[in-house]
Amino acid sequence: MWIERHISGILKKALEQFPVVVLTGARQAGKTSLARHLFPSTDYVTFDIPRDAEAARLDFDGFLIKRRQPLIIDEVQYVPEIFRRLKILVDKDRRPGRFFLTGSQDFSLMQGVTESLAGRCAILNLPTLSLVEVHKNATLPEIDRFCWKGGFPELWQRPDLDRDLWMGSYLATYLERDVRNILNVGSLRDFDRFLRAAALRVGQLLSLSEMARDVGISPNTAKSWISILEASQQIFLLEPYHTSAGKRLIKTPKLYFNDPGLLIYLLGFAEWSTVTHSPAWGSIWENLVISEARKQFLNQGKRPPFWFWRIAQGEEIDLLIEIGPRQLLAVECKVAVEIEKRSLKGFMLLSEAYGPRALKKGAVVCRTEQPYPLADRNLITALPLGGSEGLYNWIKSR
After folding, report:
1. Which of 112, 291, 333, 346 could bond to 80 as cystine, CB 3.0-4.6 Å?
2. 10 Å Cβ neighbour count for 392?
3. C-alpha span between 394 and 385 (Å, rounded)
4. How would residue 103 be classed by pLDDT, with cut points 50, 70 and 90?
5. Which of 313, 212, 206, 293 is nearest to 254 (CA)?
6. Residue 1: pLDDT band by 50, 70, 90 thresholds?
7. Which residues contact 201 (CB under 8 A, 6 or more apart)?
């Protein structure tokens, strides 16, 4: 069963305009399947096969003679030497749609792209499946099932797969292949503990010293390993919002996982009912809401203009979406159905800090099935995550 990916339109548009298109994403996010589904007659090669990777490394010109263009090159990060060769080819012939590159390791892949293909390629990021791709108008039971199962396409295309077995195999593959290839990690057992420690801190301010202490590694190693999790697109970091762009770069970020199913698996829950009765439920819901909003921007080919806002007294807004200069959408995440007025304090303080015109509109994404107003003039609304009046369309109508 094929699930239509929302990024397809912008991907086709990019191939009509650029000689090279680079599609990144976590392992098993569906990059190869999407490329071959959209362009079934296009020649294809994967550098996952050592023979092909070595042939391209030793004699790229001879390798290309045997291939037709346009050409899909999968897992291109395994042969970074070809980026310079591609630059030479593209500079001689700037026809759009010549090469479609995919890769699952941002660290080595993007280094090659920025050094050799800057200005010659479009770069898109494919997240795992979003809720709206799986269920266009999701009900609460469907949202819960999606949160538990996650967005890896194979788990939805093959309902017979055992979710726990698949997740365990995914982690083993990730640790053995991606982690060893990105950086020489001395102990995969320590890295596995670090990954689970990150899951325990989802939605919290990132403290590398605390994580290092809990796992038994140095703070510098913790910093390096966080970079690995980002580079392999398992996590993302949300920076704090300030009016000065410089200040955004020096404050403590918050940590989130790209896929909610993998997060829940790492936290060790045996069944869904234990999730909703756990102290971690609020953080899991927050992660789900913010990661879904993020996917919406990635699927449009845009870098998510996302921040969080927090003052010294502890009041905060979970997510700010910057839609213009000092123009913000504000989102809070609550697992309740009925939202109390005191939950709106952060919105009020935000307006006081930046002026009433800064907050274009606000939402509390909660477990309600229908939206309802929380403030005068519908400035702040209680929203469901799914459905035709949920978060997706609320952001879209900004």
Report:
1. 112
2. 24
3. 10
4. confident
5. 206
6. confident
7. 207, 211, 255
Residue with tokens 């290839």: 181
Q: Dump pLDDT digits (tens) for 263-297.
A: 999 999 999 999 999 999 999 999 999 999 999 99
pLDDT the model gives residue 105? 65
Least confident of 132-136, 214-218, 271-275, 314-318: 314-318
Cβ atoms of 12 and 91 closer than 8 Å: no
Q: What is the CA radius of gyration of the chain?
A: 22
Task: Spell out the alpha helix ranges (H) of 239-360.
Answer: 245-248, 260-267, 272-276, 281-298, 345-354
Q: Can you tell me the distance from the alpha carbon of 145 to that of 337, in angstroms, rounded to the nearest whole number?
A: 18
Its pTM stands at 0.93
Q: Which helix (H) or strand (E) holds 44?
A: strand 43-46
Domain residue spans of the chain: 8-125
* CA 333 and chain centroid, separation: 18
174 φ/ψ angles, rounded to the nearest 5 degrees: -60, -45
Q: How far apart are CA 166 and CA 58, in angstroms?
A: 36
Pull the structure tokens for residue 41: 């007659």
With H, G, I as helix, E, B as strand and everything else as coil, classify residue 118.
coil
Q: Is 104 in contact with 76 (CB distance < 8 Å)?
A: no
Place of tokens 């690995």: 228
Class of domain 8-125: alpha beta
CA distances from 247 to 241, 243, 283 (A): 8, 8, 26
What is the overall mean pLDDT for the chain? 90
The label of the residue with tokens 């190693």 reads: 221
**How are beta strands 306-310 and 316-324 bridged, if at all?**
antiparallel
**How far is CA 42 from its chain centroid?**
27
